[in-house]
Amino acid sequence: MEDERFSIYMAMDGPHLDGLIGSAGILRFDWPERKFYIQHYDGISAAHNVSLSPNGRLALLGNFSQQLVLLDISRPDDMKIVARQSTMYFEEAPYRLRSNTHHLWYPDNETFIGAVGDHLYRFHVDHLKEPEQLGPHKLHNAHEIRWDPGRRYILIGDLGPEHTDARQIAVFDLEEADPLKRTRVIKLPGTVWHCCVHPQKAVGYALTYSFATEQENYVDWSPAYTREYIFEVDLPTARITRVWSCGSEFPIHLNSDVDVTKDNYLYVACGGSHTVVEIPLDQFDESRVLDCVPAWWMRALLWRQRLKNLLGALSRRATIISTHFILQTLQVTGWRILDGIYAARVSPQGNYLITGNRGYNVVTVYDRKTFKKLYSKLLPFRRDRYIKSPHYHLGWRGYHLGFHHSEVISR
Known about the structure:
The protein contains three helices and 30 strands. By secondary structure, the protein is mostly beta strands.
């Protein structure tokens, strides 16, 4: 196992509760060297996802600031921006979360697909201003996009607009001749932000992301303590073939990274519940739950971040009259104030499970078979010229990095 060499990249969005209003950075962690490389970027906000080119030399930093951000990651000590392009050049964005966050790379390392506004587009890295419009996705706000091994069908999650729940996904067929007929929308009993596709067949998985709100305000929402779903989707027919569901007490809330391994296991990073859930797809019933709470001394060092999260929660709700939202959130998080696991990937050869705990600012490596903890690191707080500014309103020096979606690649 020590011979397996890989790098995992994580988007970083700062200290805020849901990762939708923060800064933009990237982290690289190398195994077995156990080295970390961290870089932040000015002029970009709310970094959300890292999409790696197949050769590992370029990356797209998905974000919520309505811009394409292309990075050269060939040198880990200088992961610089090589191109930026406003997506509002192609389609306007009347909603802050209407932005390109996830991307699909072609094997040529030069071409990729992203969602902008109402459509999917195909871009070339040297001509970002001249994409090819592939057709409408027919969703409110396309979020995660994943395609099958044959690169024909794209499964799309729906973030939803400001004033209603989404409750739908779509399957986009790149080989359909008529662009207006390429999308088939599937209605669901829950809103799906995140999805994944099997690495060996045209089967996808869409996971509900449940949140509570009032008066149809989908900006200042709270986690919902409710039962969740995972839908298995046959992509060629755009039909739901199997359903996995759980009671509200099962710790799988606010999913982030989701992935399927070649040996037929589904892994779910649970941002609300401080867990990673493993589900064997052969049966699609039993599961293993990995509790990812760090050592007590790591937790003790993060009293400032607890205050920050508490401030963020109280800024969203009128506390005295919103106890039902507060109690739902505490039941989701296991009565913890900090966020949970937003980054979780199985290593390329399947030996390790790597997690990024967003609230605790900790990266951990586990033995995948036994869930034994092999390595854990509390990362340093961010301290740069922006944070040291006298105008920084939190009043203390530095804040945690805020891990979000991740990608892993062999070296």
